[in-house]
Amino acid sequence: MFLKSLDLKNYRNYSSCSLEFSPGINVLLGRNAQGKTNLLEAIYVLATARSHRTANDRELIYFGEDQADIKGSVSRHTGTLPLELQLGKHGKKARVNHLEQAKLSQYIGQLNVILFAPEDLALVKGNPTGRRRFIDMEFGQIAPRYLHNLTQYRDVLKQRNRYLKLLSTHQTTDKVFLDVLSEQLAAFGGSIIAQRLEFLQELEKYAQELHLAITQGAEKLTLTYDSKLKDVLGHSEQELQQLMYQQLKGQLQKEIFQGTTLFGPHRDDIKFLINGKNVQTFGSQGQQRTTALSVKLAEIDVMKEQTGEYPLLLLDDVLSELDGQRQTHLLKTIQNKVQTFLTAPAMNDVAKNLIKAPRIFTIENGHASLHADKTDLKQETITFYPHKDSLKISR
């Protein structure tokens, strides 16, 4: 799978933009605040229908406009697939092959992406919220049922927490409705935990191999699921649903007292172990970064295994955060494997030596120059005219 072209209208600082990409490595060079990260974000939004930088869609719309449009042409093994996403004050509209989708869950998964930004290097040492978001976003792209269960779980959780608050403040004494909500929460929650366990097992298989290669066989990486639900391993999905329901009933008085749901997948976490020791607690910064790199790169093969096609890889200024050894391993892993979009202020020596035939866009003050590859003498120049809201391509 690769993204052939991208068309933006009124997105962030792009009033109008049309670009064609290489199926290999595409490099966006430029100083800060020139718009290179906005292009990566647009690709991410086209794939997932949400931004990784903001929850407010209004921020994605060009100043003074009411709507932003993102269009992309995706090449898959089944053929070329047009995708369209409109962001407006009344919500989102998504189209696949020019047909509007009734639900965003029917749209997500048509284009799969993996985003690797500097903050992802804090995946290991960061807070549990970030790790839960990581697994939800990545697994949600390739498993529509997981995304459905997660959406339903969050809706029921909100209802249950509101009702627990009413009970805790003695605004109601009826616990029958609460039991109904507990059954629903356990049904969706048990399914989520079962699917997360399956996903982590696949992720560990590839991350372990990558980690061994980076550390030259010195470190074995394992991933474990840290759940507030006791004894989750070795149970079927139905058994996990029942276990969660029983624990909800057992903790009922405590939850009523505190006015909130105290356990479930919304409070679970992932643990990373190197040679049996918790890298979050005992690992060096280098080990934590190597672990994050191994896990992010492992997603590429997990998505390929689950969907039959490689995803797009978005690298947002990551090379500057990695030392030479990790840069080398990253670039060797992706070369000739996945379509990659890489942003950087400039090409460093490692990238120059390892990236073969990239398509390079230099973005500065609304002007971008494009080379077909490193050896091609023909130069394409893309000039952006703000007053005309258009791009001109010349050779």
Describe it for me?
With 395 residues, the chain is α+β, with helices and mostly antiparallel strands. The chain has 2 domains: 1-112 and 309-395, P-loop containing nucleotide triphosphate hydrolases (Rossmann fold); 120-308, Glutathione S-transferase Yfyf (Class Pi), Chain A, domain 2 (Up-down Bundle), CATH 1.20.1050.90. It contains 11 helices and 17 strands. It has helices at 36-48, 104-107, 128-142, 144-168, 176-214, 237-250, 252-258, 279-282, 285-307, 324-334, 349-354, and strands at 2-11, 14-20, 25-29, 67-76, 79-88, 91-96, 99-100, 113-116, 221-226, 269-274, 277-278, 312-316, 340-344, 359-364, 367-371, 379-385, 390-394. It is globular and about 65 Å long. InterPro entries: DNA-binding_RecF (IPR001238), DNA-binding_RecF_CS (IPR018078), P-loop_NTPase (IPR027417), RecF/RecN/SMC_N (IPR003395), RecF_2 (IPR042174). It is found in: Cytoplasm.
Number of helices: 11
Strand content: 25-35%
How would you classify the helix and strand content by structural class? alpha+beta
> What is CATH's topology name of the largest domain?
Rossmann fold
CATH homologous superfamily title of the largest domain: P-loop containing nucleotide triphosphate hydrolases
Mean pLDDT: 88
C-alpha-based Rg, rounded = 23 Å
Tell me the CATH architecture of the largest domain: 3-Layer(aba) Sandwich
Query: What is the total domain count?
Result: 2
Structure summary, number of beta strands: 17
Helix content: 40-55%
Stretches where pLDDT falls below 50 for ≥5 residues?
372-395
CATH top level class name of the largest domain: Alpha Beta
Q: Distance N terminus to C terminus?
A: 28 Å
Q: Can you list the strand order of the major beta sheet?
A: 8-12-13-3-14-15-16-17
Binding site for ATP: 30-37
Keywords: ATP-binding, Cytoplasm, DNA damage, DNA repair, DNA replication, DNA-binding, Nucleotide-binding, SOS response
GO cellular component, one term: cytoplasm
Domain RecF/RecN/SMC N-terminal: 2-345
